[in-house]
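Good morning C.,

I know you're traveling, so I'll keep this short. The sequence:
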Amino acid sequence: MTRNGVVIRKFFLHISKEEQKKRFLARLEDSKKNWKFSMDDIKERKFWDDYQEAYEEMLQNTATKRAPWFVVPADNKWYGRLVVASAIIEALDGLNLAYPDMDKEKQKELEAIKRRC
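The tokens, ready to paste straight into the viewer:
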């Protein structure tokens, strides 16, 4: 895809084990968030270290210069969003986007239309 000019940025939103616990407990405390809770999450939490190792391997094996991963600390949602937004803005700035130049014939045509109006 990148060879065809597609800009790719991948984001891994990483939360700490402590923050995950805090969010799980918040889901239990708030009846409006109970639907988000799953016992499977608690069972899988026992494999935290295995998941971290798998994530690290995945990131190392799928990151390229033209399609990098951004590992975003996401314990604070506002900070994670700021990091992602900054990376997107940087990618867009790197594209050097500009409106296309208009040839003289098209400019004359538009001037003629303006005079008629």
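Safe travels,
E.
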